[in-house]
Design brief:
Elements (H helix, E strand, L loop, with lengths): L4 H12 L8 H11 L5 E4 L5 E5 L6 E7 L4 E7 L4 E7 L11 E6 L2 E8 L20 E3 L5 H6 L7 E3 L5 E3 L3 E4 L2 H19 L7 E7 L7 H10 L3 E9 L8 H4 L9 E4 L5 H13 L5 E4 L7 H6 L7 E8 L7 E4 H15 L12
Parallel strand pairs: 3-12, 3-13, 13-16, 14-15
Antiparallel strand pairs: 1-2, 2-12, 4-5, 4-9, 5-8, 6-7, 6-9, 7-8, 10-11, 11-17, 14-16
Length: 357
């Protein structure tokens, strides 16, 4: 699967730029720079959610949305001998932390550290430690709390993983935080295609990159009230359940390479979902189906439940190893999500009936 060089260059730069929850601004700057030629206007709200608008004067408004934040850690406690204990910022997985290199975003710039762990020689089967928030720690080479603070590291500093983007076997994109900056890439590509293909649309299109999804869908909740859209199409990632130790009876049956995943859930509007499925069938875009019993756990819920109810739908991208530093997605799936959103946008009409009947 081939992508344009400028698109891949943007994707690599965007993914390699740290964008932890609450501190998304550097990643958002990269994203805005890329979409600027393809939209009529760019806006940023008080907390950092960015959106590019095509046809900003139009009354009927359609949102296509992803979230910009990645999971990370906070410095929570510094010991007298200079070790750092952490708390989560989002759904950070403590089990992958031991032996990982980290970037501590201190007041004097980035300081490198490592999540330490006792050597295998010192552990026994009877007393095998399990990584927990209470026992994982960061060593930044300091020998005292004073020395840590002299490095510019204090309680509240953000900690991220530096793992960078690469392509694997010409089939997968691999990086930390594909959840969900790959979504930001895909909606940006939709904007680019509309512009370069000289497509006109009879409504305002709001290409929206929300903040703070990983801690409660907060950015989407705020921006939905600001934009007040008539329709919202959200993209996020979902689990590739063909990997080991995942129970399909619980998590469903989705696979990287088999196409975008269209969700069925209470917050998903029937009309918008069926428009997406009809588009996939008409345009011969492969797709999969998945169900969520109460909430999707994505920004779809925030949009759907805002402003008295906004017709919303969710198109997900299958992903392996979520919330690790080696998240993987199929390049072919990425291309098909872009195509599905793009083709669906071209089918939306302001006069379409949205009420259940």
């Amino acid at each position: 699967m081939k992508f344009e060089k400028k698109s891949l260059k943007f994707l690599e730069k965007y993914l390699n730029t740290s964008s932890p929850t609450g501190y998304e601004h550097k990643g958002q700057e990269v994203w805005m720079d890329y979409i600027r030629p393809y939209v009529d206007k760019i806006e940023v709200d008080h907390y950092g959610t960015c959106y590019g608008i095509i046809n900003p004067e139009a009354e009927f408004k359609v949102v296509i949305e992803a979230h910009a934040d990645e999971i990370s850690w906070y410095v929570n406690y510094i010991t007298d001998d200079g070790l750092i204990y952490v708390i989560r910022n989002g759904g950070s997985d403590q089990t992958i932390a031991p032996s990982k290199v980290v970037h501590i975003h201190g007041e004097n710039g980035i300081v490198k550290g490592v999540f330490g762990w006792p050597a295998i020689h010192t552990r026994t089967n009877q007393n095998e430690p399990t990584p927990k928030i209470e026992n994982i720690f960061i060593d930044c080479g300091a020998t005292s709390k004073k020395e840590v603070e002299e490095m510019g590291i204090y309680v509240g500093c953000m900690i991220t993983y530096p793992d960078e983007f690469f392509e694997m076997n010409d089939r997968y994109f691999v990086c930390r935080a594909l959840d969900n900056r790959i979504g930001g890439f895909m909606i940006a590509e939709v904007a680019r295609l509309l512009k370069e293909n000289k497509k006109t649309i009879p409504f305002g299109l709001y290409i929206t990159n929300s903040v703070q999804e990983e801690v409660g869908l907060y950015g989407a909740d705020m921006i939905a009230d600001t934009i007040k859209p008539n329709i919202a199409i959200v993209t996020d990632v979902t689990h590739d359940t063909t990997t080991p130790m995942i129970e399909k009876k619980k998590e469903g049956d989705q696979k990287c390479g088999d196409g975008p995943v269209v969700f069925f859930a209470p917050s998903v509007h029937h009309t918008i979902r069926e428009l997406i499925i009809d588009t996939a069938k008409t345009k011969k875009i492969p797709f999969q189906r998945a169900a969520a019993s109460r909430a999707t756990g994505t920004d779809t819920d925030a949009f759907a439940h805002s402003n008295g109810g906004v017709p919303s739908a969710l198109i997900s991208l299958p992903l392996r190893y979520m919330h690790t530093t080696v998240e993987m997605v199929s390049k072919e799936d990425v291309a098909n999500v872009i195509k599905l959103i793009y083709e669906t946008i071209l089918k939306i009409k302001p006069e379409m009936k949205l009420k259940y009947h």
